[in-house]
């Protein structure tokens, strides 16, 4: 029995290794996605071209500009130009943000109130608000220091009587706001869905299309043996993929694995089983490879990317979509993986999410096996 | 009696629809039995019951001496199967296909090696043994598929439209292979659309709407309806003129 099974697995590896497209999806895709998300698609801002319109050119404005320049987030493109240039620079795309100081800035500041205008190109709202946040933070810093120099602020509790609140901000778990911390867990989910669900549903429907499934069913092999033989190679390859992503994440993007590695791998295995069941379910219900591919892409991959919290936070979705997101396995998987990798928590915190995944996997697996039996009748 | 397939009142219903209606046939050892009928006549359902894929609704049947209700495992071990799509893996080589299917039927390593070498020699495929199936001519694929279906020495081989879409010369050669297998004592249960092929069978059965409406040797049937070819027999029966 074991011999038959190994023969089956060997044949499956021949299929995989001899099909360039399968190989590309299995091994090329994880690397390409890693590179894309790691180097191209980023949330952090970096070298934002900043136009400074400075009519006063005094020590206060110099201080602000120096500080922005030193932050590394900005690239001061034009200095001291007239205000009219702002519009033109935005239109040409030469600047994404502009800072306009009013004349006599330092003197007015000493007197208590000075104005500076922050203009951003909000074509990309995310980048614009990030730019805004950074500049405001720098301006606040400068202001606080000025105030301290003049002895205006004694303490953060506002005991000087002006009632100012100075927030003390700490970015926990990811102080440098590296987006790799966010995308690596999501990428694991997407790639596992791709490899397990998409590839297995394709490989099973392919056997049906070519007519070999018929012959296998007439053979002494039990249907479940056939399915297991087809699915297990993909399970092994998925684990290889998880390992690859984790190694790259740690080595290249310095994403930490703060919690237990064993627990992380176990949760990945659970998600793999969940995705494999979905793949089996799809292949049991679709007659052709095209149908299977469409269902897997539209029905599994898209929600995993869009609705799992991978890219867009679930909390800012409309109520209906938030409810819908509960049905997406990747949502629970992401909570678990982010918790383990970034926050270093254990099963005592994510037991509920883990149970949800176990439940989903059990349901999908049962339905998949049942669908197969029905199809065979 | 030496009946390899025996059915009595074999019936399969799907809801209100009776796909196979009280079919009773007997097929002897080494016989080439043609199983004819228009599309949707119930041939596929009948074959699925005989190959252990589908449980009959009522009636009795034994295949290779095993009961279709309780002994499907043994039936599967003792039959071979080949469909119109030849069912070989195109991205595997000749040798790998033989090895895989031999393994599926539980052939031991040594036996498998011997048979594989023997088969490759017999089919004259020695130079092509390590090329992928996809590059082989259709006729070779068909021969190989048939040989693979016989690899585990089954008592019966089911051929489901094995020559669909194949040119006449290749079809002739293929029938040569079928005769050789039958001479060696293998029962051949074959469905076909080609009426000239029906002439090659020892006996044929004609199925219309789930029932066997005619059963006999080609000569008998032609005589019974007073026509010259099996094609005429088929047309008359399919029109319900019998």
Specify the overall morphology of chain A: elongated
> Main sheet of chain A?
4 strands, mixed
Report the portion of residues of chain A in β strands.
Answer: 5-15%
Distance between the termini of chain B: 30 Å
Give the low-pLDDT segments of chain B: none
Query: What's the helix count of chain B?
Result: 9
Number of strands of chain A: 4
Largest sheet of chain B: 6 strands, mixed
* Pattern of helices and strands of chain B: EEEEHEEHEHHHEHEHEEHH
Structural class of chain B: alpha/beta
Helix/strand order of chain A, N-terminal first = HHEHEHEHEHHHHHHHHH
Average pLDDT taken over every residue of chain B? 90
- Count up the helices of chain A: 14
Quaternary state of this entry equals: heterodimer
> Could you name the ranges of chain A where pLDDT drops below 50 across 5 or more consecutive residues?
153-162
Supply the helix-strand structural class of chain A. alpha/beta
Strand content of chain B: 25-35%
Distance separating the two termini of chain A: 24 Å
- Rounded mean pLDDT of chain A is 84
Summed up:
By secondary structure, chain A is α/β, with parallel strands linked by helices. Chain A contains 14 helices and 4 strands.
Describe the protein in words.
- The complex is a heterodimer of chains A (377) and B (242).
- Chain A is α/β, with parallel strands linked by helices and 377 residues long.
- Chain A has helices spanning 2-18, 20-40, 59-71, 84-92, 105-111, 125-149, 180-210, 212-218, 223-253, 261-285, 289-306, 319-325, 329-343, 347-376, and strands at residues 48-54, 74-79, 97-101, 116-120.
- In chain A, strands 2-1-3-4 form a 4-stranded mixed β-sheet, with helices on both faces.
- In chain A, strand 1 (48-54), helix 3 (59-71) and strand 2 (74-79) form a beta-alpha-beta unit.
- In chain A, helix 13 (329-343) runs antiparallel to helix 14 (347-376).
- Chain A is elongated, with a radius of gyration of 28 Å.
- Mean pLDDT of chain A is 84; it is low at 153-162.
- With 242 residues, chain B is α/β, with parallel strands linked by helices.
- Chain B is built from 9 helices and 11 strands.
- Chain B has helices spanning 43-50, 72-77, 94-104, 109-122, 138-149, 168-183, 195-198, 218-225, 230-238, and strands spanning 3-14, 17-23, 26-28, 32-37, 58-63, 66-67, 79-83, 156-160, 187-191, 203-208, 211-216.
- In chain B, strands 7-8-9-4-10-11 form a 6-stranded mixed β-sheet, with helices on both faces. In chain B, strands 1, 2, 3, 5 and 6 form a 5-stranded antiparallel β-sheet that branches.
- Chain B is globular, with a radius of gyration of 18 Å.
- The model of chain B has no long low-confidence stretch (mean pLDDT 90).
